[in-house]
Amino acid sequence: HFSCSCVRGRSRLPLWLREICAYVRLLVRSLYFNALTDSDVVFDSVFEPVFWTVDHVTRWFGMVFVCLVVILTSSIVLIAYVVLLPLVLNTYSPVWIAWHLCYGHWNLVMIAFHYYKATKTSPGSPPTVKNDIPFVSVCKRCIIPKPARTHHCGICNRCILKMDHHCPWLNNCVGHFNHRYFFSFCLFMTMGCVYCSVSGRNLFLDAYNALERFKHMDMEKPGVPVTGMGLLIGILPPGQTNYQTPPPPYTFKDKMIHKSIIYMWVLTSTVGVALGGLTIWHAVLISRGETSIERHINNKERKRMAKRGKLYKNPFSYGRLNNWRIFFGVEKRSHWVTRVLLPSGHAPYGDGLTWDIYPVKKDMMPV
């Protein structure tokens, strides 16, 4: 009798409300629809609206981040040319002048080249037409086969070959074909920030102390008190007891120069510390033959194999030095200069679809 009354009560509900209830029940049941469901699936399902919002906001603000990088970097370069270069030419010895000019311009060229290539080079995507390339799974978003090391990017809305992460500062994914450009940009940007921070430390201290002196001078009331005989002989008009001194010996230009030096040192020091930590982290991953995504996957796999008493080995690692050689595309010793220390647009090893690097491995240095 109770069940009949429930059915009758439910039937009295409006159709649109019953449809909503049915849809909610379907969503709840979809969280445990088969035995393959785990905590990761439930987490992804619950936080899907959050991921969607973050992906779309990042996509919309991508060009804003790129413009911010260009503007901040250009401001530091402008200060270096307008403020610092005249100081260097007037105070340093010829040897130090040559060092600063050569190193500074080399570092600037490497930063600009690798940032442009990282933003403009496509990371690579698997083919959408039928092919015989081996794959490990099928993307649930693109509904196409995914080769090894390929992952879907929700921001770019496509699968990326050897995906590391989506970088908002590049407005691009970091993948197989632009991973080297991204890491080189981080490395040379960090080196440039450290160079500016270390070489400009004394200038920063002098500028800061000068601004403090200017501030105290502004707070003091201008003028020298006149007392005694000065008042009797009529140096000042009646009622005035201070003799006005000339204006302070600094100008608006001096203030702007000192503030520019402080701005440059604070910005480069902050970016150098933050970006330096990121660069070190990626260097560790490259040494292990991993990407940021594979780091988490390999950790899970390593724990799973350890429970079975087995040892997990990363199939894409060829030894620390060989991993670096593969990453930078170094085939002979001269390439450490021409392909690492100089701008180079050479393509990485392989096509990002298969990972059989045995032909390369034969020519590798023994490690």
UniProtKB/TrEMBL annotation:
Enzyme Commission number(s) of this protein: 2.3.1.225
Membrane topology: Multi-pass membrane protein
Bilayer-crossing regions: 60-84, 96-116, 181-204, 224-241, 261-286
Ranges where the Palmitoyltransferase DHHC domain occurs: 137-296
PROSITE patterns (UniProt xref): DHHC (PS50216)
Main localization of the protein described in the UniProt heading: membrane
GO cellular component annotations of the record: membrane
InterPro entries per the UniProt record, alphabetical: Palmitoyltrfase_DHHC, PFA4/ZDH16/20/ERF2-like
Keyword terms: Acyltransferase, Membrane, Transferase, Transmembrane, Transmembrane helix
MF terms in GO: protein-cysteine S-palmitoyltransferase activity
Domain comment, as recorded: The DHHC domain is required for palmitoyltransferase activity.
Name of the protein in its database record: Palmitoyltransferase
Gene (UniProt): ZDHHC16
